[in-house]
């Protein structure tokens, strides 16, 4: 097996190849003055199974997506056998159904595009909604990084912390975290206006006074959901608030807004490389490639 280091996930890909002891193929990336990307694989993949690791997080997620498509095409033209794309953050995965008439299903378009260029298998991490996996045109697997995030807090001495989901949709996430943390579990009520994007949250029935609470979510974008959740928790008398997410997009001043609201620490994974990406996906991806999950 050969691991191709996509330009957006170079360090992660290197760590995965080191961990499973297979060849790492580097990639030359050039961006032309007009913004178009050029990629070239620096290694022979003739007759090889190839795994391309490339996240498609902001910024420039469209360019990262096209770079991925170009790497897949390059590998197939160079005679690779099976091509697996590992895309830790799959751009557009939140538009996975029709919310309003006149929309498209962007997640399906992305997967169809990767299918068309020759991806045989697609692996991602905590896709926004697992229910859509079976609807895609090629085999897509979503592996979960939640226990790695929970492990981080156990290592810091927070075994027994309360795992809170910012909405009911993320309840399955906190139930996974609870397996590791062993504390309480619950969720806030959240309703988002589909036209304005405005969010209404409430914490009725939550008994978290004096607790250490870790809010778990798949994605943090503007941080608005977490700021609202933190305010509710503070009003309910919690002792400490921490935040863990798989995909820390953290657009603009999202991190500052959360810290100003009273969050003591924010952690995420390197699906989105950055200052808060304290948990690497390397063990999870390596385990998957070894066939252990
Ligand atoms: C929504 O269902 C997601 O799980 C996240 O809660 C949402 O994407 C977070 O967005 P923001 O950080 O902009 O509130």
Query: How far is the first residue's CA from the last residue's CA?
Result: 17 Å
Order of helices and strands: EHEEEHEHEEHEHEEEEHEHEH
Largest sheet: 7 strands, mixed
Shape: globular
- How confident overall, as mean pLDDT? 96
Helix content, binned percent: 25-40%
> Which stretches are low in confidence, meaning pLDDT under 50 for 5 or more residues running?
none
Number of helices: 8
Helix/strand class: alpha/beta
Task: Please give the number of β-strands.
Answer: 14
Oligomeric description of these chains: single chain
Which kinds of small molecule does this entry bind, naming each only once?
A: ribose-5-phosphate
Strand order of the largest sheet: 3-2-1-4-5-6-7
Description:
By secondary structure, this protein is α/β, with parallel strands linked by helices. It has eight helices and 14 strands. The strands form three sheets. The chain has a seven-stranded mixed sheet, sandwiched between helices. The protein binds ribose-5-phosphate. The site of ribose-5-phosphate has 13 residues, from strand 12 and helix 6.
Gist?
The chain is an alpha/beta fold and about 290 residues long.
Q: How are the elements arranged and paired?
A:
Blueprint: E1 2-5, H1 10-20, E2 23-31, E3 37-42, E4 50-53, H2 61-77, E5 83-87, H3 106-117, E6 121-125, E7 140-143, H4 146-155, E8 162-165, H5 171-181, E9 185-187, E10 189-192, E11 199-202, E12 212-220, H6 224-235, E13 240-248, H7 254-260, E14 265-267, H8 282-289
Parallel strand pairs: 1-2, 1-4, 4-5, 5-6, 6-7, 8-9, 8-12, 12-13, 13-14
Antiparallel strand pairs: 2-3, 10-11
The chain binds ribose-5-phosphate.
